[in-house]
Amino acid sequence: MTLFEQLGGEAAVTAVTTQFYANIQADATVSNFFNGINMADQTNKTASFLCAALGGPKAWGGRNLKEVHANMGITNDQFTTVIGHLRSALTSAGVAADLVEQTVAVAETVRGDVVTA
Question: Where is the signal peptide, in residue numbers (predicted)?
């Protein structure tokens, strides 16, 4: 069973992603990266990415993360903050601790593509 399936599939990943962005938007240390962004579209893109990364049936067809984040100046500390918001969203959704950590580990694999400062 894939991590995607263990988490509950697309609907569950999308719900977690929605909470993840609510957490980010409430945090002044990282919310500025999303000024002027259509958050419904952003949530859909991120949920699609996470579904693919977690073993879902659809391959990621979106833009390369390194290119998307190239000029954003995201620091290691800011990425760590965002990972904390993901962990919180997963925990709030009632995801078991071991699955939370497995999901966070998958998200951590893109740190090198996202951190540019």
Answer: none
Q: What is the pLDDT of residues 67-107, one digit of tens each?
A: 888 888 899 999 999 999 999 999 999 999 999 999 999 99
**What does each C-alpha distance from 14 to 23, 25, 32, 112 come to in angstroms?**
14, 16, 22, 24
Q: In this structure, what token pair is assigned to residue 107?
A: 């998200």
pTM here is 0.93
For residue 77, give every residue at least 6 positions away whose Cβ sits within 8 Å of its Cβ, in sequence order, or none: none
Copy the structure tokens of residue 90: 């997963």
Q: Which residue has the tokens 């699609």?
A: 48
Kindly write down the DSSP assignment for every residue of 50-83, as one continuous string. Answer: HHHHTT-SS---S--HHHHHTTS---HHHHHHHH
